[in-house]
């Protein structure tokens, strides 16, 4: 018996790319972190997002993808920059708050969430987040029913002891981390 036939592996279930619900479920198999993207100015706004990624270290760039129909899309189009708070374990309620479309508009949506102002137009940064990134808007790209907003990182902070909040398969969770081995750098192969 060859190694390929030793264990029966079920065939992958085909997904119709035009079936939005099925495609969303398939894409949800990829675990992501959870962020809150914010803009400041006279009408600050926040939005939960998991479409976030680092892009480049030189220059330091990251991106967020926002639905073209979202209120945050209009806010980002008008702003010179934005902030990203990477939520930590125990901040699921904050993620749910900024995903709730019935939350107040403007500063009222931050009344129940601990935050502090960023340096660029005072965009709120979520207190206790695993990391913060303050960005100048660098480029904007059309991407179907979403827009990609690239930000040049002008300030960053990290809470090294804070674990990340994860989203996988439509549920929140946290990573199962193994302890560091003595003498090995975290994340590097020997």
Structure, explained:
This protein is 15% helix and 37% strand. It is an alpha+beta fold. Strands 3-2-6-9-10-5-4 form a seven-stranded antiparallel sheet, sandwiched between helices. It has a three-stranded antiparallel sheet with strand order 1-11-12, with no helix packed on it. The protein has four helices and twelve strands.
Task: Briefly say what this structure is.
The protein is an alpha+beta fold. It has four helices and twelve strands; from the N terminus they run ααβββββαβαββββββ.
**Discrete helix count:** 4
Helix content: 10-25%
Ranges with pLDDT <50 over ≥5 residues? 181-190
Q: What spatial order of strands do you see in the largest sheet?
A: 3-2-6-9-10-5-4
Output the helix-strand order: HHEEEEEHEHEEEEEE
**What is the approximate shape?**
globular
* Computed Rg: 19 Å
- For the termini, the CA-CA separation is 34 Å
- List how many beta strands DSSP finds: 12
């Amino acid at each position: 018996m060859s190694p390929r036939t030793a264990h029966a592996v079920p065939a992958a279930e085909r997904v119709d790319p035009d079936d939005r619900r099925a495609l969303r479920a398939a894409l949800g198999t990829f675990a992501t972190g959870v962020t809150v993207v914010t803009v400041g100015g006279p009408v600050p706004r926040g939005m939960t997002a998991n479409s976030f990624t680092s892009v480049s270290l030189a220059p330091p760039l990251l991106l967020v993808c926002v639905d073209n129909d979202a209120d945050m899309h209009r806010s980002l189009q008008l702003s010179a920059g934005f902030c990203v708070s990477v939520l930590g374990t125990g901040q699921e309620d904050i993620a749910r708050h900024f995903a709730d479309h019935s939350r107040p508009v403007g500063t009222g949506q931050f009344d129940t969430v601990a935050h502090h102002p960023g340096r660029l137009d005072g965009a709120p940064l979520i207190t206790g987040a695993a990391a913060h990134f303050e960005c100048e808007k660098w480029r904007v790209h059309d991407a179907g029913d979403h827009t990609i907003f690239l930000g040049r990182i002008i300030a960053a902070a990290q809470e090294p002891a804070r674990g990340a909040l994860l989203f996988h398969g439509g549920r929140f969770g946290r990573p199962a981390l193994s302890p560091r081995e003595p003498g090995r750098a975290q994340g590097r192969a020997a």
